[in-house]
Specification:
Layout (H helix, E strand, L loop, with lengths): L2 H36 E3 L9 E13 L2 E13 L3 E13 L5 H20 L5 E5 L3 H4 L6 H17 L3 E5 L14 H8 L4 E3 L2 E4 L8 H7 L2 E8 L7 E5 L5 H12 L2 E2 L2 E2 H10 L3 H10 L19
Parallel strand pairs: 2-5, 5-6
Antiparallel strand pairs: 1-7, 2-3, 3-4, 6-10, 7-9, 8-9, 9-10, 11-12
């Protein structure tokens, strides 16, 4: 930080604080009624239920001849005790190109769905980390990659009755259509456990989208935002079948059994299992003979290799 900027900031700090307060008050006035009409307070009761939690991880590293990548995925079953139901992963290299990183991301998603399908053993609820929307963002140039993803997706939703997608960092605004994200508004204007009224969101048809999959979802998916415990985070839940208020309550009752500080612990556990640490990345690259530059702590992160 340079001195002139800091001096100007000191001169305006009280003014900026007042602007922050005014913006927050304006948001409350404009959006409070909308939130009030759509938020349903619900104090869930922990039910005895089994879940299968699924997540995946990936990383890429570009070299002159291509893109080295690693992907992994895991499904953990929770019944009477925690049990690893399925694990998979690979390290490989692909030709360089603008779509390389997107392909790796899609391959990871395919592996996640494969893990859910392979690990499923009649659990009451299958918990997928992330958003279902990514399955339907079909790009024409990656149609073949998407086709593989859709094939796995079809098999999963035929096999398992109740599959939900839960995301914690949604910045979308489909519900309130405000300047702020739905999650931000709900975190500002609610504090009780509960959920928003179920909403169906249309999925735009793309000719690369699997026709069998399109017929199953009927052109859209359902979603709600929810909070498991007072003061906890707002999470987004997506569901393929019709999502009623009663169905949401049943899902939240199940999740409450695994609630840790407002988040379903099985998803937290599987997330950390599949995450590639810096040490993991270095170990893979160095074993392949790739020299990774070790840069001092003061070096900008944007210019680092990892």
């Amino acid at each position: 930080m340079i001195g002139v900027m800091y001096s100007r900031y000191i001169e305006r700090v009280d003014e900026i604080k007042l602007q922050m307060e005014n913006l927050a008050n304006r948001t409350v006035r404009e959006e409070e009624e909308k939130v009030k009409n759509l938020w349903i307070k619900y104090y869930s009761n922990a039910d005895e239920c089994s879940v299968l939690a699924v997540d995946g991880g990936h990383f890429t590293y570009e070299i002159r001849s291509g893109v080295i990548y690693a992907i992994d995925a895991e499904a953990i079953s929770w019944r009477d005790q925690e049990k690893i139901a399925y694990q998979d992963g690979e390290v490989s290299i692909m030709r360089p190109g603008e779509g390389a990183k997107k392909k790796v991301s899609l391959e990871m998603e395919r592996l996640e769905i494969l893990s859910a399908r392979s690990g499923y053993n009649g659990e009451d609820l299958v918990l997928m980390d992330g958003s279902i929307a990514s399955v339907f963002r079909v790009e024409e140039e990656l149609a073949q990659v998407y086709q593989k993803l859709h094939d796995e997706f079809n098999k999963l939703i035929i096999l398992a009755k109740d599959v939900v997608w839960i995301s914690k960092n949604s910045r979308l605004r489909p519900l309130f259509k405000s300047e702020l994200s739905d999650v931000t508004l709900l975190e500002m204007l609610t504090e009780t456990p509960g959920f928003t009224r179920p909403t169906r969101r249309k999925v735009n048809r793309n000719k690369a989208l699997n026709s069998e999959l399109w017929e199953k979802i009927g052109g859209g998916a359902w979603f709600t935002y929810f909070r498991l415990s007072k003061g906890g985070p707002i999470l987004k839940l997506e569901y393929l079948n019709e999502l009623t208020e009663k169905r949401i309550e049943n899902i939240l009752n199940c999740l409450s059994k695994y609630n840790v500080q407002g988040y379903p612990y099985p998803l937290l556990k599987v997330h950390y299992d599949v995450k590639f640490t810096k040490g993991d990345k270095l170990r893979i690259l160095e074993s392949l003979g790739v020299k990774v530059k070790r840069i001092a702590n003061w070096w900008p992160r944007q210019l680092s290799d990892l």
